[in-house]
Structure prediction request, 739 residues.
Amino acid sequence: MNKIGLIISREYFTRVKKKSFFLTTILVPIVIIGFYIAIIAITVNGSSEKQSIAVIDDSNLFNGNIDSKDKAIDFKFIKNETEVSFVKKYKAQGYNAFLYVPAFDIDSPKNFTLHTQSAPSLSTNSIVEENINKAVVNRRLVSQGIDPKKYEKIASDVTLKNIDDSKRAGSTSSVMAAFIVSFACGILIYMMMIIYGTQVMRGVTEEKTNRIAEVIVSSVKPFQLMMGKIIGIGAVGLTQFMIWIILIFAGQLLLPVIFPDMLQQINGAAAGTGNASKAAEFMQGLSSLPLLKIVLSFLFYFLGGYLTYASLFAAIGSVVSEDQQEAQQLVFPILMPIVLGFVIMTKAVNDPNSSLAVFGSLFPLTSPIVMMGRITYDIPFWQLATSMLLLIGCFLLFTWMTGKIYRTGILMYGKKPSWKEMIRWGFRKQ
Amino acid sequence: MNILELQNLKKFFATQKAVDDISFSIEQGSIFGLLGPNGAGKTTLLRMITGIFYPDSGNIILNGKKFDALNDAFNIGYMPEERGLYKKMKIGEQALYLARLKGMSKADAMASIKKWFVKFEMETWWNKKVEDLSKGMSQKLQFVTTVLHQPKLIILDEPFSGLDPVNANLIKDEIFNLAKSGSTIIFSTHRMEQVEEICDHIVLVNKGKKILDGSVNEVKQDFKENVYQLGAETLPENFDTGIFNVVKHQHDRILLKLNDDTKPNDVLKYFISQNINIKSFNEVLPSLNDIFIKLVEGTTAARQFQKVN
Prediction:
């Protein structure tokens, strides 16, 4: 119908032209990227700040030399001082911390102390501990008559590599990449459903309290007005989503051009802490995921979930008047299954084939969120098909019923109807 | 020719017989007044005529054909009592949107909007928002959006509320112009002096039923009470006659209620015989206000909730 097109374009353009749309669309990714950069910057700075630690080695554990892999920590051995006398001086001499190694029993090493002025960072702590442990092991090896160099050759350090053979033979997929993508998709659907659903509700309430609804339903059917609004706002959501995808790709291309130094720094820092391999693994894992399937399912479940819930939100919007508290009371039962879906999704990403996850991804009120949480894993075709059909069916049923609640509610003023009355409207024949 | 005919319309709600078997017809080009106290069922009736509600039973015949809400939207312009416009939307865009929802093409709608905006001196409003307008200004805008698409049937629910006399006159003149150019106007109000001034034909509803139907003049003739006003230079305090009673006495004017078998000429003869110099003598018809109050009086002021089976 031509008229529903007019309504859709009004709903769409009045929202897209607003400053707030531009700001949220552009600012949200910038804030996220900025946050990401800030975290990296902090970690880079934190580890590049040189720490210098004084060591008094009463048992000569280290033979006067600690071979620190981390260049950020500088160990200095102090002679002719005791723990008690040096504790008062190390700060004045410019040390961040002071490690005291007492004489100890090789069978039960204890009483190693790290003096600091403030709580040491976890990485400092673990580096010092690692060095002590290594020195103790070396001493034990020597006392057992084993050459430490020989032992190093014997010791094994294996990282597990995961290969998923279920789809295409030889395609490697990183479990971590799958997990992150699933989780991100689930959260995104969850947020979009709530944000845009609430927008539908507000829009409907606005039309009702402005009394414009009465003017418009003398030109078009109430159902056209409702669907026009739902589709228009859904299109706004899709637009926002598309802009974000474009921004992310543009950001990935532009970031290294704008900040070439920073990227090197990040890589350098990551190499130091061993994150580089993980990041590379993630990128590799990402490229091995079935991206087309994920994007298509995301679009389907976003639209399906949004449309199913938007009609409910529209019905709620049509029965409340100015009182925002009324709206919140009525919205609560609708938010519950969405939140339930979110909770099941957090379980489903860890255990995608549990019966709870399968149920959640079939049940149409939770399936958009839960199915996205499982999407990077292999889902049997029948489950995907059943889930999609159920969602479409649920959408049609809800739209049919809420359309009738809407057409009654939008012209009713005064008392808020009870649930019983609303359900009766929903089933009434017209 | 009748543009609109209502036949035995009924609409019951859970606790109200909002419209209970109402029939009337409206002639093309006339200005029709739909009157009634608060809660009489006027708005429900109008909502059925505009296709917002479906009647429970009965027929609406528009232009000789059964009324079809979707396809007849173009023929109807409805201005509800509670005004409604999008507050944040620009005025020009809003007018265009509402006109196109009625089915106008973009070019036609623009031409019509320009014409009306010039007529009502609203050209500078185009890029303003409704929230920037005063109540009277948004009232004017609402009227314009109602008539933009040149509907055959224009339904105005309390069109003058909130307007100053100048703007009320502006709209009143436009109502007469629209009727002259062939549009039919249904005018719903409880301001009786406006009805007397504007309407050709009225229907009075109360408690969901029609209790009066006719032209303003007919109705007044039907309810006249043989009251005449007589003006003279001086009038005595008391009259010693059995042919009339004095309703109201001022020093040079007098309101007389004639007894049933008295003719106006008998009164004149009496005054002439008394040597009183008559300056004026005319019949006083009841105002619609009086008729309205008389008819509605006695029924409970507020509508009671009732059981509808």
